Prior knowledge:
The protein is of the alpha+beta class. Helices cover about 20% and strands about 20% of the residues.
Amino acid sequence: MTVFLPTLALNADFQPLSYYPLSLWSWQDSIKAVFLDRVNILAEYEETINSPSISIRLPSVIALKEYKISKKEPAFTRFNVFLRDNFSCQYCGNKQKTKELTFDHIIPRSQGGKTNWSNVVSACRPCNFKKGNKLPRNIGMFPINKAKAPSEQELKKNGRKFPPNFLHKSWRDFLYWDTELLSS
């Protein structure tokens, strides 16, 4: 039997461990965590997994029993820069797919610019090419938003704007996407 039913993993405070990418565990990892008594099952799928001695419904939502403290500062990664900048070019403002975005050093490295939160922004290829190796004041291209280190809360907030392709109905009570709610 091939099973592809991910489990939404929540911290002990019932918040997702991460929003983007969404904290999803494989069914194997979630079953293991259940048997090791590390999580509580909050919702289940209809499907079951059977062994010679036990049958268990697959968890669709689990919560850690012990609160996992996250890092104080988000890691400086390409993906986190894109997430901080809402997957938008910081020069023209156009939203882009991840594979179409590039890093741009506001102060070019050849002119002493560092690769860090305060000097790197997301840029589309045309804007990055246009700016090239020039200082913003020399070409009149300034980032829309100030480049700075984001907090974990800012990244989580931005991550909520980009729900994944797969959202099981049992997860809806535990996720707070910025989507319009249907009125009855």
